[in-house]
Amino acid sequence: MAANTLLGDNLGRKDPTSQRWLLRGVHLQVASGDRCAVVGPSGSGKTLLLRALSLLDRLDEGEIRWNGKTHRGSSVPNYRRQVVYLHQRPALWEGSVEANLRRPFQLQLHRARRFDHSQIMNWLAVLGRAESFLDQPQQELSGGEIQLVGFLRAIQLDPSILLLDEPTASLDLETAMAMEQLIDLWMAADAGPRAFLWVTHDHGQADRVANRILQMKQGELRDG
Hints:
The protein is 30% helix and 24% strand. With 224 residues, the chain is an alpha/beta fold. It is globular. The chain starts with 5 loop residues before the first strand and ends with a strand.
């Protein structure tokens, strides 16, 4: 198995009330260099899959392995440092954009790293934002700007795999395509092998960002 490989083997999850399967028989492997898009109708299980892969939701069957190992208990935080899930509506702390970008480095898991202002400035330029964006208060941000901050907050931590849940859903087309350009730059940067799994309703976007397109339908996943 290649280094930095995320494997979901026979994943299944039931609705606890109805006992209906929400995910069933899902097999998925994401390895370094993979640019995967997951498409499918609303309610097909795309977000459930990302939450399961990020170890946020329990499974009723199957297992998730990172580099051949399962992770439970005390090993989960380190797993989540390598496999980062970005919610469609990221939660921000009170304070400015810059304060939100600096906040993760106060956590024990990331204290060995430092906030890189120059790198953030380079990324903001790609996104068409001036340095003054860093001073904007969290409560004054639009839904699309919150998505931008969440995205920057995630990629600055250099995860091995990004799990992206419709990260451009609240963005206009120009800014969405700028974010697509930024993830290209992030993937190409010389900071170790990377991959992403990008959930989108936009088939055109899937074609632009991905080298693998996965179809989700009624809790089942297949290639192509």
